[in-house]
Amino acid sequence: MKQARVVFDKMPERDFVSWNTMIVGYARNGVFHEALKLYGELRRLCIGYNGFSFASLLIVCVKSKDFELSRQVHGQVLVVGFFTNVVVSSSIVDAYAKCGKMKEARRLFDEMSVRDIPAWTTLVSGYAACGNMESAAEVFYQMPQKNSYSWTSLIVGYAKNGMGHEALGVFRKMIQHRVRPDKYTFHSCFLACAIIASLKHGKQLHSYLVQNNIRPNTVVLSAIIDMYSKCGSLETAKKVFELNGNKQDVVLWNSMISALAYCGYGTDAVMMLNDMLRSGMKPDRATFVSILNACSHSGLVQEGLQFFMSMTSEHGVVPDQEHYACLVNLLHRAGCFNKSATELQVMDPKPGEHVDNCLLGLWGKLESTKLEREVHRFPFRLQLQSSAAYLLLSSVYVALVKRGTVEKMRQIMHERYLRHDQAVT
C-alpha cells in the first residue's frame, strides 16, 4: 500500500475511480483509519462518487464490525439514493450481520427490491454466526437459487455450532444436487466428523477426495489430520502428514503438533516442534499455543517455560492472552501457583478476560487467608470490566464459605454497572 499511495499522491488528476481503488486497498489490508480518512477527503472534494465508493467503505464496516459506522454509512446511502444498488445493499446487510444485529439485517434484507445469491447467503451466514441455525436453514431453503458458497455457508454454520450430523446431512444433499464442493466445504465437513468423533464418516469423506482426484490444499489437509487425531486414529494422522504434507507450510506442522497434544503425546509434540525448527520453518502464535498446551497436559514444565521464554527473544512472536492462559495452566499443574500469579502481574500487555477467568478458576481450588485477600484485590488491580470474572469470583468465595463477601462482590458488580451476559448466566 505504501507504493500505491506514492503513485496515488503523484497523480496530476484523480477521479473517484482512483479514490475508490485506494479506499478498497486500505480496507482490504486492514488499514481502516486511512480508508475512512480518504473517504472523508473524497466527499469534501465534490468530484463525484458512485455505488462502489460506498461498497469500498462498507468493507471497513464488515471487517471492523463497527455497528455505529455501519449505521452512518447506511444513512448516507439512503440520502444519496444508492440503496437500489444490490452490491451496496447486500454489503450493508453483511455489515449488520457481522455486528450480530440480525434484526436490522433481516429488516434491511426484506426491504431490498432485488436479492441476489450473495445477499441470501449473507443472511444465512449471519444467522449461523449468531448460533441461530433454525433461521439459517429456513432462509437457505427459501433461496430461489443456490451456489457452492451458499451450501458451504450452511455446512460451516452447523459445524461451528457443534451440529456435526446436520452438517454432513447438508453435504450429502449438496452432492445429490451435483453442486461441486470447495476447500471450505471439505474443511467444515472434516470438522463435523471430528466433532461427532465419527471415523467412519471421516474415512468416507477422505475416500471421496481420493476417488474424485481432488488434491487437498493445506487447509483441508490440516482438517484431515485434526479429524483423524480426534477420532482416535493418530497413526493415520501421522501418515497424512508424512505423505501429503508440504513441509514448508507452518499450518500443517501446527496441526500435527496439536494432534499429538490432543492425544496426550507431549514429548512427541516437543520433538515435532524441534524437527520443525531444524527444517528452517518459522513458528507462529498458533504453534506456541499448541506446544504450551502439549507441555501443560504432559507435565513438561521446564520445556514449556523454555518455549514460552523463546517466543519473543528467538522467534519474534509476542505472547497474547491465550499464551498466558496456557502458561498459567502449565505452572498450576506443576504446583507453581505463586509463580503463576507473579507471571501475570508482570504481563505486558495486561491479561484479558480469558486469562483472568483462568486464574480465578485456579484460585477457586485453594484455601488461605492470603488467597482471600488476593482474590478480593484481583478485579480492582486489573480493573476488570467483565461480569463473567465477577461471577466466577463469587463462586470462589462460595467455595471458601464466605457468604457475606459474595453479597459484597455482587454489590461491587452493580456499582460498576456490569451486566450479566446471557451466555454466561
From TrEMBL:
PPR repeats: from-to residues: 15-45, 85-119, 147-181, 249-283, 284-319
The keyword Repeat is assigned to this record: yes
Pfam families: PPR, PPR_2
Keywords assigned by UniProt, alphabetized: Repeat
Name recorded for this polypeptide: Pentatricopeptide repeat-containing protein
Species per Swiss-Prot/TrEMBL record: Stylosanthes scabra
